[in-house]
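Ticket #223: bound-state structure for NAP.
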Amino acid sequence: MSHDTTIGLISGTGEEGRGIALRLAAAGLQIYLGSRSEEKALEGAKELNQVIGQNLILGADNHDLIEKCNILFLTIPFIYADAVLEKHRDQFKSHHVLVDVTVPVVFDKGPQLLDLEEGSGAEYIRQRVPSDTPIVAAFKTLPAHLLAEHHLTLDCDEFLCSDSKEAKEQVRSILEKIPTVRWIDGGPLKYCRALEAMTFLAIGINRRLKIKASRFQLLGLED
Ligand SMILES: NC(=O)c1ccc[n+]([C@@H]2O[C@H](COP(=O)([O-])OP(=O)(O)OC[C@H]3O[C@@H](n4cnc5c(N)ncnc54)[C@H](OP(=O)(O)O)[C@@H]3O)[C@@H](O)[C@H]2O)c1
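RESOLUTION: The complex was predicted; output attached.
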């Protein structure tokens, strides 16, 4: 990882963002937890630092966070992505990598996977961020509930998709510090349609079996 890598989670105060923040900090990485409200970010960072027993998580409002960090996780519900990306569009530059964690699922009489003209949530986001800011999809199938139990092993595979090999490797080098998860190259962003559908499937399975942490493992990689 390069010395000038600075990691931030845009509105990382929700369930998934907090889980990712805990796992990254537990791996020894310093990160910024973002929010639309600086106060909420500082409070969230304080709580998470207490959980891991170290002061590795710093709070910042989303605007400051994008200025300070170059690896930016987008950890908001998909339906707000358009508005949030529009608000910060002028801040995204070529030195940033936007890590898209969003899944285009809404809950209306049960989970529904949105049918998007762009193909996937990641491709929808690609079209709303300047073209010289690379997008990497990650964490799409990793459940917040399990991430938050940071002392538990993950014991699963997770997928990275990006149209930029360089950005994908940059993100991989960070995420490989999290133990017990194997990061698999899922190819370019066009495969996110399948990845997001896998999360939709896992949500349905969780609901039917009354569990919270179904996830994926791929067989045959060593063959
Ligand atoms: N939950 C999971 O297990 C899971 C698994 C894989 C992927 N994901 C994906 O991860 C993303 C985050 O999920 P989550 O469960 O963490 O979401 P969440 O808790 O519902 O919300 C995350 C954050 O989004 C911000 N937010 C809320 N309303 C907003 C609005 N109207 N406009 C702009 N920002 C708003 C809030 O941050 P501030 O108020 O601090 O700005 C909130 O803390 C989603 O896209 C989800 O599909 C979730």
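RESOLUTION NOTES: The radius of gyration is 16 Å.
TICKET STATUS: resolved
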